[in-house]
Amino acid sequence: MIRVVLVDDQPLLRSGFRALLDLEDDIEVVAEAGDGVEGLALVREHLPDIALIDIQMPVVDGIEATRRIAADPALAGVHVVILTNYGLDEYVFDALRAGAAGFLVKDIVPEDFLHAVRVAARGDALLAPSVTRRLIDRFVTQPLHTGAEVELEELTNREREAVALVAQGLSNDQVAGRMMISPMTAKTHVNRAMAKLHARDRAQLVVFAYESGLVTPRGR
């Protein structure tokens, strides 16, 4: 069962998302909140698999809530998915760096919304296509981070290759196909890279790949 805490300051949207989730046999909304402070308290109380958090809220916004969840070792198993509007995707970069597993735009179709929750619960990076382009554009304008370049040296060549493929949006099975190795070996390379880089999930591998220069956006 995928356990979800839903945090959004718009009651109508929140009730709509909950209605969708409650219809699914494998998903349970264990709590909901209307602001970041209450949401954080409920996340700590219920330890959900997924925290669906609106990016703009009173008191504590989605980016700060994500940062606090990522910084708490007791919440290491919580995957944060940010809910955003089309006009807010300039915050994608900051929230990913804060520890978000990915993003969903609020006008997403129900089938894609439910699929996304399940993808995030597996620990896979989740970036809605409508915000991915803005994310890459933001990386183009960011200077490379020396610290990330140093961390890159800690990875083996095969781990670097796996991380680069993850940053292109490939699944473990697809990574295995490109590297001509078994899916289990591909998963091992990805997991070892995550451990060495202290990455919460695959989304942080994407951030690292661009910050270190392992993957270079077109236009840099």
From TrEMBL:
GO BP field: phosphorelay signal transduction system; regulation of DNA-templated transcription
Domain Response regulatory, chain residue ranges per copy: 3-121
Record CDD domains: LuxR_C_like, REC_NarL-like
Residue list for modification 4-aspartylphosphate: 54
Residue span, HTH luxR-type domain: 148-213
Gene3D superfamilies assigned: 3.40.50.2300
InterPro entries the record matches: CheY-like_superfamily, NreC/VraR/RcsB-like_REC, Sig_transdc_resp-reg_C-effctor, Sig_transdc_resp-reg_receiver, Tscrpt_reg_LuxR_C, WalR-like
SUPFAM superfamilies: C-terminal effector domain of the bipartite response regulators, CheY-like
Domain of life where this protein originates: Bacteria
SMART domains given in the database record: HTH_LUXR, REC
This protein's UniProt keywords: DNA-binding, Phosphoprotein, Transcription, Transcription regulation
Example of a GO MF term: DNA binding
Name of the protein this chain belongs to: DNA-binding response regulator
Upper taxonomic lineage: Bacteria, Bacillati, Actinomycetota, Actinomycetes, Streptosporangiales
